[in-house]
Amino acid sequence: MDIAIVGGSGFIGRHTARELIKEGHRVYIFDKVSPYLDSFFNEHDTCRLRYKKVDALDLQKLYHAFQWEAFDVVYMFAAISDSKENHINIQHAVETNIMSLTNTLKVCEELKIPRVIFSSTVWVYSVVKDREYVCEKENLSISNSDHIYTTCKLACESILRNYCSVRDIDYTILRYGIAYGPGCHPDTVLSKFISNALNNKPLVITGNGETYRNFLYVTDHARGNVLALSEKAKNKIINLEGPEKITLINVANRVKELHSNDIDIELTNERHGDYRGKQVANNESKNLLNWKPLIDFKTGSKLLYEYQKENFNNSPSR
Which domain holds residue 160? Predict the structure, then answer.
């Protein structure tokens, strides 16, 4: 297949591109920043990978970029995913998260691209206030959202379903668990704790430490994204959630264990609208895609720690 990834230079996008190439697909990344082809992809990968600089907010340029090839599928990853960044500039977050999607859908309509795979998030389940265990069949009320990122993703899911239903485009919505691994966003809680430990700074937890995440290692995201090409995934919502419940206190203690150092843990005020965690069912991903997470938190956290430690030791300032 010829596959486009809008926002493919990001953390999950790069890993997904590499996994798609392994499966024999030709991949085209459309992003306003480079995916660092030389440092991340090997020579074999780059034979089946192309990159074009384009901002998904510019509909005309996006349309012209897509005329490069007759695409079979588009992955839509372009978004501002960091919760803090969404709060800092709400107008920019709304424009980026929503208009990047609608522009991509317009291009798919005009160029007769038959399918879109959209990256959503398990954060959308934060609107379910009365229980901890949730699945894809939940009725998610956007009026219960108390974070701009959650609101944007819920709006995008609705726009995608509505648009595709009237324009005869197949879709898949993937609700991701919290991604981590080498190269992840530095403000991801695990990455930030590791950076603080390496710099002999305290590990600062927002709230009482009982908030939790079901972290999902990035290669598990990438496998799930590739498996979502299945015909069985068409017009479905599918969770790709991590294998285990990890509280923020657990995260901090794991970093202390990896670092073998007496690092302080500090508690501070909880952030407004922060995702407190849900037990998200992976039934659809198992039944439709035969997918399950392969890397547990103990293994994945060690891989990320070793990566950040190596880069810390090799930094020019040291």
Answer: 2-178+217-240
